[in-house]
Amino acid sequence: MSERDTFDRVFLGSERIDALPGDARGFAYGDGLFETMRVHRGLVPWWTQHVTRLVRGASHLSMPLPDPAQLEREARALFDDDGDGVLKLIVSRGGGGRGYTPHPDAPPLWRVSRHALPAPLRPGGLVLRWCDLRLASQPALAGIKHCNRLEQVLARAEWNDPAIDEGLLRSSDGDLVCATAANVFVLHGDRWSTPSLEDCGVAGVCRAWVLAETGAIETRIAPEALQTADAVLLCNAVRGILPVARLEGRTWALHPAVADLRARLARAHPGFAVDQEVA
Fold first, then answer.
1. All domains of the chain, ordered by start, with CATH?
2. Which residues of 2-37 are buried (b: 16+ CB within 10 A; e: fewer)?
């Protein structure tokens, strides 16, 4: 097979096509959804949870989805060597000509692609900064993983220092929301908290796992609360649980509660155990 056949497949409805059509609404308007998934030995640890979030997002956007059985078959076909990596799925509303009005009968345009795992983390934990960009409030899109990520693009462009791993984002009201590509949890004593996502932010699949494991409360978190935190972690479905070592002038050693969560995640989904060997 060619490299394209192995690592990238594009479909319109149920039919495979060679390339994105010129009226692809995801390309033109960000009118779509995506999922980025960890693959371990050919399997996605949270496949059901990713599909559930995709269905929820499609309901918000009133957008049709591919046949679930075909979607799973094509995703598995990209990892039929039982390899490790990252699976990315993008589902866009099908084209219908120029203009914002969606065509009610357009089939979904979708793409699955295979990618290498990200580089190993630095030992000791992440180094963070605060981003200047503020996330806009839009409850109609809050929680879903839609394709318009311009805010995250602008936030990530704020630094090119290789010593900084991630940036934290605030809402227009100044509250903590997330990192550019991860959710955030904060520990005070024995209580975990995470930002509520009623107005903006993505409800991550790994975030849901950490919520269930810790009983964390979803609430508004002021930036100042991180200065008094006993631990801070980031999480996403590709990296798993990431300990934070420094945020500007504040530093943290690896907290036992974070180490315990990482061990529990590795037992539940062994693919994440590899990351813990280097962080």
1. 3-115 (3.30.470.10), 126-272 (3.20.10.10)
2. eeeeeebbbbbbeeeeeebeebbbbbeeebbbbbbb
Nearest C-alpha neighbor of 64 from the set 14, 18, 30, 29:
14
Q: What is the pLDDT of residues 95-107, one digit of tens each?
A: 767 788 888 788 9
User: Tokens in use for 111?
Assistant: 């793409």
Neighbours of 199 (CB within 10 A): 19
Please choose, from the candidates 229, 243, 237, the residue with its C-alpha nearest in 3D space to the C-alpha of residue 278.
243
pLDDT at 274 over 70: no
Q: What are phi and psi of 238, to 5 degrees?
A: -95, -45
CB 90 within 8 A of CB 147: yes
Distance CA 224, CA 168 (A): 13
CA distances to 83, 98, 102, 252 from 95, rounded to whole Å, are 34, 8, 8, 49
Q: Classify the C-alpha dihedral 37-39-43-45 as positive or negative.
A: negative
Q: How far apart are alpha carbons 272 and 66 in whole angstroms?
A: 29
pTM assigned to the model = 0.93
Q: What are the residues whose beta carbons fall under 8 Å from the beta carbon of 47, sequence distance 6 or more?
A: 37, 72, 75
How far is Cα 234 from Cα 242, in angstroms, rounded to an integer? 5
